[in-house]
Amino acid sequence: NIIGEMAHEVGEAYNRLADIKIAQAHEFSLQIAELVQQANKEMKQIENEKENQKNKEKDSKQKEIEKTKEVEITEKFKETTIKQQNLNKQINATLSLVNEYSAKVK
Q: What are the boundaries of the region Disordered (predicted)?
């Protein structure tokens, strides 16, 4: 009976951990969506700026500023990808624990 209660408590702990990880995943997803939206907005802005500048001469300083913006956007996409990969690892680890526990409880 005590073992059953302990197993039940462990199961509840795993479920709470899974809930926490799911909440974290949701939060990360929101943050990632924000970063992607911001990066897309900035990319569109850069495209518009390029279109507006097409018929004008560009000096080297302007080109350097645009290149810097493109590099920053690329870095944001890289950061977003890394965050998503880390999140996927956390989710997979949590699900493995939950599945392992579920298999033991059965």
A: 43-67
